[in-house]
Structure formats: C-alpha cells, structure tokens
Write a structure and sequence with these properties.
This protein is α+β, with helices and mostly antiparallel strands. The protein has three domains: about 5-90, 2-Layer Sandwich (Uridine Diphospho-n-acetylenolpyruvylglucosamine Reductase, domain 2), CATH 3.30.43; about 95-245, Uridine Diphospho-n-acetylenolpyruvylglucosamine Reductase, domain 3 (2-Layer Sandwich), CATH 3.30.465; about 250-359, UDP-N-acetylenolpyruvoylglucosamine reductase, C-terminal domain (Uridine Diphospho-n-acetylenolpyruvylglucosamine Reductase, domain 1, Alpha-Beta Complex). It is built from ten helices and 20 strands. It has helices spanning about 5-15, 50-60, 115-125, 145, 175-180, 220-225, 235-245, 270-275, 295-300, 330-350, and strands at about 25-30, 40-50, 70, 80, 85-90, 95-100, 105-110, 150, 155, 160-165, 170-175, 195-205, 255-260, 265, 285, 290-295, 310, 310-315, 320-325, 355-359. A five-stranded antiparallel sheet has the order 6-7-12-10-11. A four-stranded mixed sheet has the order 1-2-5-3. Strands 13-19-18-17 form a four-stranded antiparallel sheet. The protein is globular, with a radius of gyration of 23 Å.
Length: about 350
C-alpha cells in the first residue's frame, strides 16, 4: 500500500475512534442527585465544566457531536421520565463581579452560580432589582432560558446580556436583550435556538437606588403586618423568602421542582365568561390585553391540593407544586400531572402548560 494511502487510513481511524478523556467524560452516571425531584435516571455520559475554556474544549471534542446533549444547571426545572441516552453537561461555572457607574450597576455571574446566592450578594451590596426573585431554585445559567419570574418581576426586567457557546462549533456569542426575545416564561433559547447554545455567564442591569415593588402577592400585607412603612430591598427579599418557604417544600427533604405549571394566559373573550361563572377566580392583569390566571387556584379547585397519589402528589401548602414523596419515578409524576391537566381543562376549559422540562 502506498505511504500516502496508509497515512490517510491512519488519520481516518484516529477521527472515528478517538479515545474518551475520562477526566472530562464519565460513563453511566446516576442523575438522581442532579435533579431536585430526586427521581432515578442514568446518563450514558456525563461531564461537568467549571470554566468557559472547559466548555469550549468539551464542545470541540468529536464525540460530543455524535451524542444527544442535555444541559443541566441545578436540575431544578427538569423531570426525568427515563434514562438519557447521550451526554449530560452540567454547567458549574462560578464567579460574581460588579461594575458600578454612579447609580447604575452591572453584575455578571457565572452560569453555575446558585441563583439565590446571586440575589443575596446583590441585596447585601445594596444593588436593587433582584430582591423579588429571592429563593427561586436553580442556577444563573437557566434564568434567561426560562425568563424566571416571581412577585411582579421577571428576569427580562433586569437582563443586560449573556454569553453563550454554540454547541455545533464551540464559538462564543453575546446575546443582547433584544436577541433573547423574552416572553412569559419563554425566550429564544426555548424556541428558535433550542438546544443550540449553552449559556456560560449572565449580566444584569441593577441600580443602587431602589424602586421597591410590593404590589404582587402578599408582600405588602406582610410589610404592614410587620410594621414596615419604608421597606428596603433587604426587607422585600426577606419577606419573599419567608413566603416561599411557607408555601414550598425544601427539595433536600421532599423532591420537587417548584412550580410545575405555568400560570395560564387567556384573552378577555375567554376570561369574561369564566369570571361570570367563578366569581372568586384568582387573576392578574397581563400585557397585550391578556389575563393571567393563578394555576395553583385552578388546581386547588379541582381537589388536588395536598393530595397523595402513590409516591407522588401535590404539596399541602401549594397545589402548584408536585412532589416526590420518596420513591416516585419520573413517569409516575408525569402521569399525575396529566391527571391535573385533564381535570382543570374539564372544569374550566383552560389548558395548563408544564413549566418543568420533561426528558
């Protein structure tokens, strides 16, 4: 065989059978501890990255391009209904930094930073904007994907930009506010660019002069109860945290992913007859002539609050939260959520949408 042909054969063989770097990739890994539902599942391959360089190097490995990919942060917004036959990438990039220019503050955090750690850092530093988002589970990297929100504030209200890496090439790209196409619990990362980028860090536009938002939920009532007339961002953060703790189970003791369903948005044509039939219907104004309904209220009216169904059910203090009471499988939780969706639709004509990602 000519030497040129032999060299070509050796090159082809190297590309097809490149050995796996086991210091980066692990095989047959249990995902039970990597999802807050605590349901059993395995992944064929698993890699955890702690820097943008690590992420780029991983994405440029030939084997990555041959496998289905799933990106995990804190695992707080995912339900595994089966094993994952591919590569799970856990993004654990750390770090928080701030640039202060007069009253304006730009805070940048690594995608692996625990969300509430970022909130505590900002509140403790006097940087206003994130206090209403206290104690939301998960990591910073997931926040733009989901456009997380709570108590009258959404991620889009404080978003500056994010840095992400294209899975196909490993190339870096910065996404501006307009690029992200934010909507209610939605973004471009859940639509046109779903599965195409991994977020490495996020920048937020905050301010040293607080514009306190206490009108949503029970914040103002709790401030009044505590005799706080001129609340600070620390007061708001503490109250939001206390409210969430009173309603939501701790994932370290009872598996859950927080709110399992989105609050449905409906138009006036659908809303008026509903309100006429159910005068106590819990609802809130929403943009674009929409009305937001409280999914928890709808579910509770169907008799699901605090129910136990096998190893799963809803939380005793909040019907919107589905839980793993100890040995539930993801399929069991999913099937129970189907029951809820069907019951709510049958009674109210409103179709609930899962907020949790189903795998």
């Amino acid at each position: 065989m000519p030497l040129t042909c032999l060299l070509q054969l050796l090159t082809i063989t190297f590309v097809l059978y490149i050995p796996i770097d086991m210091s980066i990739l692990q095989e047959n890994i249990s995902l039970k501890s990597f999802n807050t539902f605590g349901v059993p599942a395995h992944s064929d391959y698993f890699a955890e990255v702690f820097s943008e360089t690590d992420l780029q190097e991983l994405l440029r490995m030939p084997i990555v391009k041959q496998l289905p990919l799933l990106v995990l942060g804190g695992g707080s917004n995912v339900l595994f209904t089966k094993d994952f036959n591919g590569l799970v990438i856990k993004v654990s990039i750390p770090g928080i930094s701030a640039v202060v220019e007069q009253d304006d503050v730009t805070v940048t955090a690594g995608a692996g930073v625990v969300w509430n750690d970022l909130v505590k850092y900002c509140v403790g530093s006097g940087f206003a904007g994130l206090e209403n988002l206290s104690l939301i589970p998960g990591t910073v990297g997931a926040s733009p994907i989901q456009n997380i929100g709570a108590y009258g504030v959404e991620l889009k209200d404080v978003f500056e930009s994010c840095t992400a890496y294209e899975i196909a090439t490993g190339d870096e790209r910065t996404f501006s506010f307009d690029d992200c196409k934010f909507a209610y619990r939605d973004s471009i990362f859940k639509n046109e660019l779903k599965g195409q980028y991994i977020i490495a860090k996020v920048s937020f536009k905050l301010n040293t002069k607080a514009s306190i938002n206490t009108q949503y939920g029970a914040i103002q009532a709790e401030l009044t109860k505590r005799g706080i007339l001129d609340p600070t961002i620390a007061d708001v953060s503490e109250i939001v945290s206390d409210i969430r703790v009173s309603k939501l189970p701790d994932p370290s003791t009872i598996g859950n992913a927080g709110s399992f369903f989105k609050n449905p948005l409906i138009d006036d044509i659908q809303f008026e007859p509903l309100l006429a039939k159910f005068s106590d219907l819990v609802h809130y104004p929403a943009p674009n002539q929409k009305v937001k309904l409280a999914a928890g209220w709808l579910i509770e009216q169907c008799g699901f609050k605090g129910i136990v169904a096998g190893h799963t059910g809803t939380w005793k203090n909040q019907a919107l939260v589905l839980v793993n009471y100890g040995n539930a499988t993801g399929k069991e939780v999913f099937d129970f959520s189907d029951r809820i969706i069907n019951e709510v639709y049958s009674r109210f004509g409103v179709m609930l949408e899962r907020e949790v990602n189903i795998v």
